[in-house]
Design a protein that fits this description.
Elements: E1 15-19, H1 22-25, H2 40-46, E2 54-57, H3 59-65, E3 75-78, H4 98-103, E4 108-113, H5 120-136, E5 141-145, H6 158-171, E6 175-178, H7 184-193, E7 198-202, H8 209-221, E8 226-229, H9 231-234, H10 240-251, H11 256-261
Parallel strand pairs: 1-2, 1-8, 2-3, 3-4, 4-5, 5-6, 6-7, 7-8
The structure holds 1,6-di-O-phosphono-beta-D-fructofuranose.
């Protein structure tokens, strides 16, 4: 862990990362209800909102679309990622080098690690290479810390999420992105387990404005540093209203009720 409060992907100690790597991870099915969002430019437009500190995309999308947004959006280059067509034990091939991410203008790096998978050893080695190379460019490393594999029946139980944040600290991440463990208390323990490293919540499938904001409120109360979210933002036809409310809950400490009232 290195100090990243001065990094472009952090605002007042907090982060709101807009993730849009779902075309690879899940396939175009995630865009079914919002087909216009198949055009990555539409989501880059959303990422120009003040609340968003970085947009996380794969290399191909960065190559094609980031040049038009480099003045308005901070780039988090996701270095690995796998398709939903892969039926084997959880794994995530490295699709982009750190050198190329830096060339594309990345402000930060993203890397998925499936601790508990039979591929854990290789994934840790790949993470090590990326993390150490990233240090040469002073690029913060956001770890999608997702324990997963045949031996793990419940990947969001409190002890698993606390283990996920701790692993991220131990192997050199600067931010751990983890699933919500189901309660504020469990999230608080996961944050504590990470020491001084930042922990952000992974968004999950789309819920109502109120349900989502209430969870974000609980996560912030638990001491987390924000959010790395995809579907709960860009699957809305007009994400601006939700981003306005998220800005209040994340950076201004407002409640979900207050943020929605204004
Ligand atoms: P969401 O907020 O839409 O859940 O996105 C977060 C994310 O980590 C994406 O970056 C990624 O594409 C997806 O979730 C992977 O989710 P999973 O591995 O659980 O299918």
């Amino acid at each position: 862990m290195i100090p990243i409060d001065d990094s472009p992907i952090v605002r007042d100690g907090k982060s709101l990362i807009l993730a849009m790597d779902h075309g690879l991870e899940h396939g175009p099915v995630d865009f079914k209800e919002v087909p216009e969002k198949l055009d990555p430019s539409t989501v880059f437009e959303t990422a120009t909102h003040d609340a968003v500190t970085a947009m996380a995309v794969q290399k191909g999308v960065a190559e094609g679309y980031y040049p038009s947004y480099e003045d308005d959006v901070n780039l988090l280059l996701k270095l690995n990622g796998t398709s939903n067509l892969w039926m084997g034990e959880p794994d995530s091939p490295v699709n982009c080098s750190v050198d190329y991410a830096a060339e594309l203008g990345a402000d930060a790096l993203g890397f998925t690690v499936y601790s508990g998978s039979n591929n854990e050893v290789e994934m840790y080695e790949e993470f090590r290479d990326a993390q150490e190379k990233g240090r040469e460019y002073d690029l913060p490393m956001v770890m999608w810390s997702y324990p997963r594999g045949q031996g793990l029946k419940n990947d969001t139980k409190p002890s698993t999420i606390s283990y996920a944040t701790r692993i991220a600290l131990e192997i050199g991440a600067d931010i751990a992105k983890v699933k919500y463990p189901g309660s504020k208390e469990a999230m608080a323990h996961a944050v504590k387990s990470a020491g001084d490293m930042k922990v952000v919540m992974s968004g999950g499938s789309k819920t109502s404005d109120y349900e989502f904001l209430s969870t974000v409120e609980a996560v912030m109360d638990a001491g987390a540093s924000g959010l790395a979210v995809g579907r709960n933002v860009w699957q809305r036809e007009d994400p601006t209203q939700l981003l306005d409310a998220l800005e209040k809950v994340i950076y201004e400490g407002e409640t979900a009720d207050a943020a929605l009232e204004e």
